[in-house]
Amino acid sequence: MKTFSISQAVAEPFRQAVRRPMATMIWGLVLLAPTALAFAAIIPMLTELMASGAFENGPGPDHVSPFDDDFAAMMQFQIWSQLANIAQLFAVLLVTTAIIRAVFASRRGDSAAHLRIGMQELYVAVIGVTVGIGMVITVVAAVLLAVAIGLALGGTPEPWRSLIYFGMGIGLAVGFLALWGRLALLAPACLRYNTFAFVEGWKLGRGQTWRLLALMIVMFFVALVLCAVLFTVILVAAMFVGGGMAAMEPEPEAVQAWFEGLQGRPLLLIGGGILLLLPVAWVHGFCQLLGAAPFARAVLDLAPDVTPNSAISADTALIDH
Description:
This protein is mainly α. The protein contains 11 helices and no strands. The two termini are 37 Å apart.
């Protein structure tokens, strides 16, 4: 029986980030694009409301929402918010599929960072919607079952009742993680087999449940460590900037005048925005790598040799032509 290497699966996001730094940044830019477009549409509306004094009422019994007197503005805000959510889901679909494609492509490059819009994206989208609906139903059923068992055990003396509840919680958590590990193979399997790989992806996880569970636990701790490192870097940078400003002891009027002067220097704002955007985009792309690349690597190790109709062949044909 074929298996996969947990260490290789954990290392795959870092391998891809080092091998494809520009692609990682492009993936992050794609993920940030819906948010940027939503802000570009919403900020002018909020600016107009601020100029009209809609936000001047402070909290209190007489506080009035800025949207209470402007139904059109409220509807516009809601529409843009929902469109941004839909666009964000579409961006996640494109980037996730591109990451899986990149893992399967090994060292082969791609001028479009493996981003496509085609049938494979449709396969992954259907898998995602189906799994999402199924997980919601499963969670609701598990909650109802837990409530029923809790009511049935209402007369059990302590500490046995608490121990049973604790054991139920651990069992449910392990069960959901194991199930999610199996389901996480479905999307990469769609690209591996170039079809709606519900059956194929589920079969790939047969006999690998505990290894997939271990992979998810390891990736959780890896994400925690990376978040701690990133938070430390941001904190040190903030302390450095704050300490530098405190050492200069600027007057409040001077600081306000400097910020107000930025409005007349658009090139400085654009340059500063780009300098901030690029590392933020790379971090976003790498975060998506952490979620998708390990399971793509697992499918690459578990799946049999690729057939001529597979995703790798299709991707190779696109690159060659």
